[in-house]
Amino acid sequence: MEHVTEKQDHQTRVKQATEAGKAKQNPDAAFRLGYHLMAPSGWINDPNGLVFYKEQYHVFYQHHPYDETWGPMHWGHAVSDDLVHWRHLPVALAPGDAFDQSGCFSGSAVDDDGVLTLIYTGHNVVNQETDELYQNQNIARSVDGVTFEKSEANPVIPAQPVGMQRDFRDPKVWKEDGSWKMVVGSTEAGKGQVLLYQSSDLENWEYQGILAKHNGGNEGYMWECPDFFKLDGKHVLLLSPQGIEPEGNRFHNLYQTGSLIGEMRDGEFVRGAFTELDYGHDFYAVQTFLDGKGRRIAIGWMDMWESPMPSQQEGWSGALTLPRELNLSPAGKLRMKPVEELQLLRVTEEQLKQNEISGTFLIDGQSNQLELEFDIDLTISAANIFGVNVCCSSDGSERSTIQINRSKGTITLDRSYSGIGVSGARTAPIEIGESLHVRLFIDRSSIEIFINEGETVMTSRIYPKESSTGIEFFTEEGTMKLRSAHLYQL
Ligand code: FRU
């Protein structure tokens, strides 16, 4: 009887959370994104449970529907036929059961023979004053893809021994050779690691050992949000380590998201060095899934812990990145390029006539929801430093600068004049070949930059005025030759 009451409680909590989120919607919010996935209102962080289920794309996310700041974590839920147009569904998971008292933390989803099954971390604060807490793994199922029932078997993996129980989270599950596998983020003696489990039924899990661990260098104290898959002949472990220290141009965000690429040898994952996946200010907790076309698609949280979030004044905070298809370059580099469906967003197309720029060349982008794509001919381009300012105000006070330095082989995104709340530059390596392909997506308070089919990617939040729609190409001493340039209103 007691359990029945708990189940009803969960559905009641889900309903209340969904209604609270709807009630809090703010139609006047100026920083709301136009074509990115966000919650109807309130706070969001990590993407969760990305899955292609019954011919539709489902995305869940860490969500606090009652407030624009982080709090007891729920799972928000949206669905799409094309990865571009999203429809909100009711909140899928609300915390408050015996095994997830303080939050339904991040996790993944699988299609278990027609049953949409979520695997997530139960976050349980035992004593707020002493900060005693434990984390365990749980499942919830749905047959209609909308309403989820938590399993009576929860927790399916109980909390770990003291010492590891605080940081034992973010299960990513997939099927391989007929059995379910799970990677979970963890730590030991202040060093990040990823644990591996196996199951035949998603309820009974067997510990298989440590899949990967800290190499003793600068790899962080806790590895959040692991994801493990095969890609183009290699094995890739994505992870979001906390505690990596800045080194030169690298690792300047509070936490990082990146990859360890390697191969399985005699059951061991032998891997290379940790490499950032996205070099912008705001990219974290990426998760991937395989879709019906066999593509490996990645979506990240388009913010960073403890960074300024001016949209909180509008009653909301956080968004997910555009979906990106992953592949390995011939040199073994992990690339992320926007999924081809994003072309569906293009409303108008304008081809820029100017093909040689010397000094500055300004156009009106006409809006803050656009895509700019251009190809620079490097065989004859003479300038060493060139680039483009976007979201420029007419009085010169606002701009977001994307600058390429040819001799250094770098791209810099400078947010010093990107509107309210944000600042600072990030610099990433780029390959200098015969040409440089740049694709930029601007969506009011976000910018995503894809260089050379996703070899280098930068994602950042910016908060310019709505009227700051100028686009200014520039060179420092010399010319830049454009092979082509297109502006699309989205
Ligand atoms: C990553 C993370 C996860 C955790 C979730 C809590 O951003 O800290 O490790 O499950 O967010 O919201």
UniProtKB/TrEMBL annotation:
The keyword Glycoprotein does not apply. GO terms for molecular function: beta-fructofuranosidase activity. It catalyses: Hydrolysis of terminal non-reducing beta-D-fructofuranoside residues in beta-D-fructofuranosides. It holds the Pfam family Glyco_hydro_32C. Keywords: Carbohydrate metabolism, Cytoplasm, Glycosidase, Hydrolase. SUPFAM superfamilies: Arabinanase/levansucrase/invertase, Concanavalin A-like lectins/glucanases. The keyword Hydrolase applies. It is an enzyme of class 3 (hydrolase). Gene3D superfamilies: Exo-inulinase, domain 1, Glycosyl hydrolase domain, family 43. It comes from the Bacteria. Its main location: cytoplasm. Its EC number is 3.2.1.26. InterPro entries: ConA-like_dom_sf, GH32_Enzymes, Glyco_hydro_32, Glyco_hydro_32_C, Glyco_hydro_32_N, Glyco_hydro_beta-prop_sf, Suc6P_hydrolase. Pathway: Glycan biosynthesis; sucrose metabolism. Residues 342-488 form the Glycosyl hydrolase family 32 C-terminal domain. It is found in: Cytoplasm. Residues 1-25 are annotated as: Disordered. Residues 36-338 form the Glycosyl hydrolase family 32 N-terminal domain. Residues 1-12 have a biased composition (Basic and acidic residues). Belongs to the glycosyl hydrolase 32 family. Enables the bacterium to metabolize sucrose as a sole carbon source. NCBIfam families: scrB_fam (TIGR01322). This is Sucrose-6-phosphate hydrolase. It comes from Shouchella xiaoxiensis.
